[in-house]
Amino acid sequence: MTSPVKDSLEHQLKALLPRGRVLTSAAQLAGYGADGLGYKNHLPDAVVIPADAEELAGFMQGARALGVPVVMRGAGTSLSGGPVAAQGGVIVHTSALKKIREINTEGFWCEVECGVGLNDLDAALKPHGVFYPPDPSSGPVCTLGGNVASNAGGAHCFRYGVTSNYVLGVEAIMLDGSLHRFGGPAGGRGPWREDWKRFMIGSEGTLAAFTRFWLRLLPLPEKVWTFRATYPDMKTTEAAIHALVAHSSYPAAIEMLDPRGVAMVESSQMACGLPEGSFMLLVEIDGPEALVNARVQSVAEILRHAGSQDVMFSDEDALRQKLWKARKASGGLLGQLSPSYVVQDAVIPKRALAEVLQLVYDEADAANIRAVNVFHAGDGNLHPNFLFDSRVPGELEKVELISKRLMQRVIEVGGTLSGEHGIGNDKSAYMPLVFGPDSMRLQLSVPAAFNPAHQMNPLKVFDNRRFVA
Amino acid sequence: MTPTLQLTIEAQGYFSNCTHCGFCLAVCPTYKLTGDENNSPRGRLRLWSEEAAGRLQQDKWTDFYTAECVGCLACETACPATVPYGEIFEHVRHEHVASHRFKPKLALRLAAAAVTHPMLFNLAMLPARLLRSAGLSMHRFLFPGRPSALKSTAAYAEELMQRHRPTGPRVAFLTGCLMEAMFREINFATVRVLIENNVQVIIPDGQGCCGAFQEHTGLDGVEALRDQNRRAFGPLDVEAIVSNSSGCGYALGKTLQPNKQVRDVLGFLGELGPVRRPRARDDGTRLYVDLPCHLVHGQKAAGIPAKVLDATGYRWELAPKAKDCCGSGGVYNIQKPENASAILADKSAFLNEAEGAPVILGTSNHVCMMQWHSAGATGLVTRPYEVKHIIQLLDPGEKFSIPSTSPQP
Predict the structure, then answer these.
(1) Same domain for B117 and B266?
(2) At a CB cut-off of 8 Å and minimum separation 6, what does A237 contact?
(3) What total number of domains does chain B contain?
(4) What's the CA gap between B80 and B324, in Å, rounded?
């Protein structure tokens, strides 16, 4: 497997990373072939694990001269094929950059390195009575670097907003080795230039390597109430969602599990007694105790009025976790049902929910593919999961065809491609469905300005964005 | 390319359960240590499945990352898709040893051979028992204790059964090999605690090593041991089979399923509500409880019951990161001492600052106890502390009687 070119790359990398690790053997690259989209494999030519932020900076200074693509990677939990070497090259794994550098409770911000785990940050913040709201389901593993790169969301983003609402500043290193700070702890009210950071958030590794962030924090809510209700059909479920959104006790989260998801949970060891064929809604409200307590009955009444016979709610941690169980378990259960799955991430106007869900069912049934819907209903962020076996010829193609038809309809009803997972190389083919040629050209000029040869994470977001040495 | 890893079809089926979500990374001790994805469950599964599918040639790095795994099974707890990682890992490790891709250290190979002959092993360990009894053992793994040099646990149990005649539930007790040969005082304490709680203790003849040693090293012979234990425990008419070592209990449990269930002795006592040990009002002892991986991730127990910990009479709390591995991993601390020590360094750091005088680190697996003892012996922990099996903290001592309020048959 050795070649002069590869030997030379290894030699150069070792010179750039005297303290970190350089992986080049076939069995060392195999582990880095995929992200959370496990069935798509793209082998890098090398992987580097910088020992710390200084070494990452040193690496970036010499990276352009390597003449190969450079791909940043956090924990590799993304579902879009983002942190993989689609055009070969070097993966930079930021697993060693996990320092929480400061927690400032007076200014309600923290400073973290890009490899800090999301739940690790939460655990560190909790004793200070503050929290960082974005909460993607991969929280136990995912890193802030990946969160910022894909502008991650989560269940509670319905009220709290997504990652971009909480990034005060980004420190990034360009391929020429120059270090830039966009914003900082003063963040939101800094000089006009600070909004350049907005280019960085959601850039999916196409612009620069992130080294650290300044993040906005909020006081921990005094009180949280969790509600669970089931509905016999989509119409009543939709009525409940609309009523919740319009009501003054604006929930933090409105999550939904469709009857196929309910069936999956109920036939597993995670069964929690949900009625067969029902749609499940999970709702959470939080805030100052007196205020939230006063709203409990009205939220329960909304859920009942829309047609639920089994509204359950609690403010006790143990019971709340039970109510969340079906929702939390559903993601992992997919793996027990099928060897591979594709999860779409479309966002649609809520009025189109029933129609688009029906389209998912019709298309999946016609192609004999299982589809399970578990998603953030409050903000219309769909997550239809198509279950298939990538080893069976033709199955992936079927799923891709369904996905494409679904995306076309999503665009027609006024929706968009991705709410929180990013585009990566999984959804880049759908970009022209949303954006015309002029818009695509304009968007491409942004990465071209930061790294003219598209050396950073090529073949992502735009499927013709290729690195030319 | 011809696949070099001869995995059974069944194991190949398991691989496909892994959706590559990455939830195992955050809990994996070697991923946390190295930040290298190949050194995580998701990475290892990928290496094995690629090789089994013929897409990856046999590679010394695959052997390296396989040998790096502690086998703590924390990934099984974290896995939403219930990939039976431990089973796959055991299979791969055995194959690596059989095909000379991995060679366990000589001391482990000798020990693995010795434990299959309990009489010989007990005899060979007699000097070590004598040294421990005399308080002269200096090895970093040999925590202090006073094991009986000659009397076996079986003989002791029979003696106490005659003396106290308990009338409650009947249990069969797995005495273990290293436990019996080296740390017999814990077995004796277990017998006393069970009998004080009116439990009838039977020690089946002909029981052998649970097989965990072979599982941990990948050496041959596990099936013969499993057969031996099926014969020894299978036909018994008892209410429970108990073990005081979570690793051994887990291994025996796998052997006897689905016909018989093996219980951790502390879990079993938790249901009875054990006799409480009184302590002085001004006792400043603080007990920090660590949970063995094979208890919480292997046997999938929630932990050690609070009723049992309360019954020690001490003020207790869970050690920080109690469900994370301490680095012992069966024989990992002998096979990979540097990694094991780095894992332990992180885990044991709290003891230096921990409140209490004296401080006890309590757990329920002798191999973890050895590892925890080494934290002091190797200078990771610089303040004095004791390592105890929780059952020792319930021990009534030689003179006890069964309280009249004990559970009746």
Answers:
(1) yes
(2) A231, A256, A279, A281, A306, A377
(3) 3
(4) 18
CB atoms A75 and B81 under 8 Å? no
Whether residues B21 and A49 touch (CB distance < 8 A) is answered with no
Nearest by Cα to B368 from B398, B333, B342: B333
Mean of pLDDT values over B346-361:
96
B290-310: burial string, b at 16+ Cβ within 10 Å, e else:
bbbbbbbbbbebebbbeebbe
Last residue of a domain, one of B272, B306, B340: B272
Boundary (domain end) residue, out of A219, A254, A283: A219
CB contact under 8 A, B35 and A23: no
CATH code, domain carrying A302: 3.40.462.10
The alpha-helical segments, DSSP class H, found in B197-336 are 212-217, 222-233, 246-256, 265-272, 293, 306-311, 332-335
Q: In which region does residue B325 sit, left (phi positive, over 0), alpha (psi from -120 to 50) or beta (all else)?
A: beta
* ipTM field: 0.93
- Record: contact A25-B59, CB cut-off 8 A: yes
pLDDT tens digits along B262-300: 999 999 999 999 999 999 999 999 999 999 999 999 999
Establish if B16 touches chain A: CB-CB under 8 angstroms.
Answer: yes
Cβ–Cβ under 8 Å, residues A71 and A205: yes
Lowest mean pLDDT among A183-187, A299-303, B225-229: A183-187
Q: Do the beta carbons of residue A4 and residue A47 sit within 8 Å?
A: no
Looking at the fold, whether B243 and B129 belong to one and the same domain comes out as: yes
In terms of CA atoms, which chain A residue is nearest residue B59?
A27
**Cα-flanking dihedrals φ and ψ of residue B319, to 5°?**
-65, 150
Sign for the pseudo-dihedral over CA of B64, B70, B76, B79: negative
Co-location of A145 and A191 in the same domain: yes
* Residue-wise DSSP of A85-136: -BTBSEEEE-TT---EEEEETTTTEEEEETT-BHHHHHHHHGGGTEE-----
Nearest to B56 among A23, A26, A95 (CB): A26
A346 and A399 in a single domain? The answer is yes
Minimal CA separation from A181 to chain B, in Å: 26
Helix/strand/coil for A282? strand
Same domain, A373 and A244: yes
Same domain assignment for residues A233 and A360: yes
Same domain assignment for residues B189 and B131: yes
Q: Which of B26, B27, B43 sits opposite A31 (nearest CB)?
A: B43
Does residue A462 sit within a domain? no
Which residue, of A412, A429, A447, is where some domain finishes? A412
Number of Cβ within 10 Å of residue B263's Cβ equals 20
**Looking at residue A1, what is its pLDDT?**
47
Q: Are A396 and A317 part of one and the same domain?
A: yes
- B308 shares its domain with B268: no
User: Which residue of A lies nearest to B66 if distances are taken between CA atoms?
Assistant: A27
- The β-bridge relationship of strands B315-318 and B286-289 is parallel
Domain that holds residue A192: 100-219
Instruction: Say yes or no: B326 contacts chain A, CB-CB below 8 A.
Output: no
State whether A405 and A269 are in the same domain: yes
Residue percentage of chain A with pLDDT more than 70: 98
Mutation pick from A32, A141, A338 vs chain B, by most beta carbons of B within 10 Å, is A141
Last residue of a domain, one of B35, B67, B98: B98
pLDDT confidence band for A330 (50 / 70 / 90):
confident
CA nearest to B195, candidates B154, B167, B233, B176: B167
| B221–chain A nearest CA distance, Å | 30
Return the pLDDT at A285.
Answer: 96
CB contact under 8 A, A335 and B25: no
- Tell me: do B368 and B296 sit in the same domain: yes
Nearest in space to B373 (alpha carbons), one of B355, B383, B358, B386: B386
Domain containing B30 equals 9-98
B window 71-110, beta carbon within 8 A of A: 78-83
